[in-house]
Amino acid sequence: MFRETVDVKVNHIAVVGNPNSGKTALFNALTGLRQKVGNYPGVTVEKKEGRIMLGNGAQAVLLDLPGTYSLTPNSPDEEIAVDVLLGHLDHTPPPAGVIVVVDASNLERNLYLLSQIIDCGLPVVVALNMIDVAQRNGVTIDVRKLSELIGVPVVPTVSTKGIGVPELKAVLAGTLMPSTKPRQWILPEPLQSECSELKHLLLKNHTLTEPQAFHESLRLLCSTAGLSLHSDRYAPEVVEHLRQDHERLARLGVDCLSTVVEARYEWIQRIQEVVLVRRLQSGPTLTDRIDRVLTHRVWGFVIFFGLMTLMFQTIFTWAEVPMHWIGLAFNGVGDFITASMSPGDLRELIVHGAVAGVGAVVTFLPQILFLFFAIGVLEDTGYMARAAFMMDRIMSKVGLHGKSFIPMLSSFACAIPGIMSTRTIENRKDRLVTILVAPLVGCSARLPVYALMIAAFIPQQNVLGFFSLAGLTLVLMYLLGIVAALATAWLFKRTLLKSETPTFIMELPPYKLPSLRSVVLHMWSRSMHFLKQAGTIILGVSIILWFLATYPKQDNASRSEQLRHSFAGQAGHLIEPVIKPLGFDWKIGLGLVGSLLQREIFVSTMGTIYGIENASESSGNRTLVERLQQDIDPVSGRSTYTLLTAICLMVFYVLAMQCLSTFAVVKRETNGWKWPLFQLGYMTALAYSVTFVVYRIGLFFL
Amino acid sequence: MNEVGLDTLVPGEKGVIGRLDTQTPEIRQRLLEMGLTKGTCIEVIRLAPLRDPIEVLLRGYRLSLRRKEAEAVIITKIED
Predict the structure, then answer these.
(1) CA angle centred on A256, ends A255 and A258, rounded to 5°
(2) CATH number, span B3-78
(3) Residues of B in contact with A392 (CB under 8 A)
(4) Which residue of A has its CA nearest to B68?
(5) Residues of A in contact with B30 (CB under 8 A)
(6) Which of A108, A112, A390 has the CB atom closest to B48's CB atom?
(7) What's the total number of domains in chain A?
(8) Residues A241 and A160 in one domain
(9) Could you tell me whether strands B14-20 and B41-47 are parallel, antiparallel, or unpaired per DSSP bridges?
(10) Pick from A186, A212, A184: nearest CA to A198
(11) Looking at residue B1, what is its pLDDT?
């Protein structure tokens, strides 16, 4: 969104802070719409930067780092934040300054990260954010005194209202400096002397500044990862000394980590006593009162599932309208091109390959926008943490984290936003497991396939008087998806991606009103990212699929004939021996090949086979239902498709991947071909074997 | 002394943290850095609807953790 200017030297300034400190809102307030969202090379951590104009005509590039509680990283996100701050990344210059966003309403814990950053000798300005919330909670902070004690400028801000932003810019226009104060917190002996010895060795052997060397030596002394990790990065002298240090400290029974953390918190407490005045609060806080209802044993679940139902209902009904428009628009574009170009392969390629392919991606956009908006609001208000809090018990049974619940739930609408929302999961293996099983949850694109099969082959009768068999079948299919997802997750967590059930040490932030600006910006950048990334792969694949369904050319053949004799038709015949054990014939095979791009294409492909032009509309669908029922196998003389075929086909669609958009997103989110290929493989194998079993058992009964 | 695990407290009860009894370095580090250090006052606010995890209040903010993790937080109960 902005041009790179080479002639002016532009400073990079990092914005860092605890999660829920209003960091991103402050970043938005500072940069406005001049933002660029990308990824850090090699990882799937979002890189957000924005250009900012300072008062004196100077410019700076602001880098929004992932939220972190400390400089000891616990997740890939936090690791990036730390690496950028310490200048460990080759492609990102070390920051010329750091804005540390400190939540004034939660000063104590927020100061912990600040103290670590100051120790690194980085030039710092503190944005004392959410000062209004602190005041409402009866907390007054002496800003001048705080700034004096920690030796860096402190600017009170309310990022959601833009308060303090001009003042912050004014500070940034000057030169940021490291803290003017010597380190305030006291490291007790014998750690103090061990640390300073190690620091001198580091300074002697490596090019580090004094504060960097101090930070490194503390980190090395506290590290529990063992020496093997460090031995190649440090001089032998340092490694040897460190080994002795660890031995000595272990002999004395000194726990380095807890000593250091305690010392820091003691210092924080001393600061708080000086700068903070707390008016006594009477009665429970607003958050407490809300939580009494929202995490209530009964009401908590009722409201949670109510909210989710409402969310999906809204997504389905509201998104359907723009989705229909987008479909019409792409049809219009197709018709326009058909009308304005002379007939030929090029026209066909553009209309049925490129336009149809891009259309397939863009049609998802309304659903994705809605879902990201809803998730953004839930996240911003603080409700998402409560959802994880309530669902963790269930998720931990299969070895996952409460945070995996929302991505899986989102996959009921569409696996794509579901997979994209796994970024909040800290543990890499857990995130991967969630990505791998999410497409098993029954998404909306499966519905047309189920609907066709149920209409054609499930008898119209009621069970127990009032449940229709059709509705029951549908529920069973969704249940099968859920069971499959949970079972597969359980299996992966014990085998392929073996790891402990992740810890659930999660902050429950106070409730607040969502910031519309942040939610919309977030929704927009995510969605555009999806369009760009998934769009290219899908465009390529839909052109290939078009080619397969069009060539070799038949002269004067109907579309149905053409498709039957195309490469795709041949592929249908080719895979017939493979799918025969599932009770499928070559026509279904062709439908399966055709719907690799998107599940619902199965319906229109079957329509084309039977020469029905508008199979996805209701009149065409009725005709297709009849044609499917009346199809007679020329060899046996019996119906080609039966109730059992329908059940098997539905089971197959529950479990098979059959969605290239998902494939593209998984490739993007896991940064490589390995996991999407694995996913395609395992899901196809699972679908095949389960369908096989169902068919074999079914033959006995039906 | 009446040292107990944090998981034994019912909502409304408070304690002072004595030590962390865990063999997993990551859990230990995370708990420490989130402020669960020796001498910190901690109160159990509520249990999740399925009784696990639990919600606690310390250093002016709310944290949730599983019973299994809370077991490792050894506290001395404060009666009031």
Answers:
(1) 75
(2) 2.30.30.90
(3) 48, 52-53, 66
(4) A503
(5) 74, 503, 505
(6) A390
(7) 3
(8) no
(9) antiparallel
(10) A212
(11) 60
- What is the CA angle A326-A330-A331, rounded to 5? 115
Contact status, residue A375 vs residue A314, Cβ threshold 8 Å: no
Alpha-carbon distances, residue B3 vs A590, B20, B70 (angstroms): 69, 12, 13
Pairwise CB contact (< 8 Å): B62 & A393? no
Query: Which are the contacts of A81, defined by CB distance < 8 A and separation ≥ 6?
Result: A16, A65, A66, A67, A68, A73
Report pTM. Answer: 0.82
Is A599 buried (19+), middle (13-18) or exposed (0-12) by CB count in 10 A? buried
Q: Looking at residue A268, what is its pLDDT?
A: 94
Question: Taking the domains of chain B in order of start, what are their residue ranges?
Answer: 3-78
- Residues of A within 8 A of B40 (CB-CB) are 265
* Per-residue pLDDT, A4: 44
Across chain A, which has 702 residues, the per-10-residue mean pLDDT values are: 49 91 90 75 75 82 90 79 83 87 94 92 93 90 94 93 92 84 82 87 85 86 63 78 85 87 94 87 80 91 85 72 84 87 82 76 78 85 91 88 84 82 82 94 83 85 75 86 93 85 86 88 80 73 79 74 81 88 89 82 79 64 82 79 92 92 87 92 95 93 78
CB atoms within 10 A of CB A344: 8
ipTM: 0.95
Distance between CA atoms of residues A325 and A317, nearest Å: 13
Q: What is the pLDDT of residue A254?
A: 83
Full residue range of the structural domain in which residue A574 is found: 538-701
Distance from CA of B14 to the nearest CA of A (A): 16
Q: Does B71 touch chain A (CB under 8 A)?
A: no
Cis previous bond, A581, omega within 30: no
Of A263, A278, A293, the domain-final residue = A278
- Give the residue from chain B lying closest to A73, CA to CA: B30
pLDDT of residue A230: 55
CA dihedral (B44, B48, B54, B55) in degrees, to 10, reads -60
Q: Which residues contact A258 (CB under 8 A, 6 or more apart)?
A: B20, B28, B32, B37, B38
Chain B residues with CB under 8 Å of A262 CB are 37-39
Radius of gyration of chain A (CA): 30
Nearest CA in chain B to A294: B49
